[in-house]
Model the fold of this input.
Amino acid sequence: QVQLVESGGGLVQAGGSLRLSCAASGRTFGTSAMGWFRQAPGKERAFVAAISWSGTTTRYSDLVKGRFTISRDNAKNTVYLQMNSLNVEDTAIYFCVAGPSIGVFINWGQGTQVTVSS
Done:
């Protein structure tokens, strides 16, 4: 079991950047795939990015590819989401997730709000 706490959300102007962090606790972090989902107002949760336990494999939604970068530091039990060139459509609650492999996420954080103003 992995417990997840997100931070780094906030208000940013379009074109700006934010870096989200997800601090994880639990014995299995080092062997867990990690990822980020988001939920915009009135919409369902959607996949954003994921990274394998080793960090060697990453996956991105087409909507964020080239603008967002996921990374992890297993020594710090932390996963990051660097978000550049933000636009208003990126406004959402961002959730950190963990699981046994990319695409199989069973643990969710509480979420952090990202708001992009025009």
About this structure: The chain has no helices and eleven strands. The first strand starts at residue 3 and ends at 7. The two ends are 39 Å apart (CA to CA). The chain has a mean pLDDT of 95.
